[in-house]
Amino acid sequence: MNEETRYKIQFIDNEEDTTRSVRLSLRSLRMIVIGAGAAALILGAASVLSVYTLMNNYSHDAETAQLREANRIQQEQILQVSKKAAALQQDLDRLHRSEDGLRALVGAPPAAEDETLQEGTSAPTGGEAHDLTTADLGKALAMIEARLVTRRTSLDLLAESMRESFPGAGSFASDDAPHTTPSIWPTAGYVSSPYGLRFGGSEFHQGVDIAAEIGTPIVATADGVVTAAGWNGGYGNMVDVDHGGGIVTRYGHASAVAVTVGQQVRRGQTIAYVGSTGRSTGPHLHYEVRVNGQPVNPAGYL
What we know:
The chain contains three helices and 14 strands. The protein is an alpha+beta fold. It is elongated and about 125 Å long.
């Protein structure tokens, strides 16, 4: 086909009754078509790139928000554990003072000092504040563990001294003495719902509810064997401990269980952690004492 062949394109304006003509060669038409195609490709590519950029930015923002939320939750958890660690430090201080008093009563030498905090020293303060990290928490827990080792060693020596000097008190001074009757509080908190009738007499409560923060340790109230550990309907995560003599204690609504069926536990041993699982309206421990299969008022065992 002759490249110089010209084509005539007419534009007719009906309103003004005019006609305009444009003569283009085949080469010019080809250039116009190629240019239009290139423009369409560029526009399409730009549109795809814009959509990809927007989606990528949205995905990045969503990922960033998730990371921030995860970091916030982790910081809250670290803070909660840190508070419990501080409370344990205070409990150890009270235990140390109590041991000193007991040693003075029986004429025993003073208690051994903690390696991490020698008498006469004070903890330095100051410096820039910073968020708690797992490393910081690990160091604090390691210090508490070291103090616990020191206290246990010191108490073992005191118990041995008491067994030699006061034979009648040997069973009370020994950790090996059996404690098969529930006699301590199962967790730290306050009674939010007692044993007996409640809700205007429409329901009989077979135990006591002890309100506490989620994650607060739940301990066995006497020596025994774990007969149930896991999910149990309205009780949520639950632990049953058989203490012998027909006495069983039950611990319900735990956030997590720390023992297994068949495990031997000692009085004061952590068996679960306070939660709000099962039929529960808030974090608390549901504690029952059962004698020969029948629930009794736990108040007589606290």
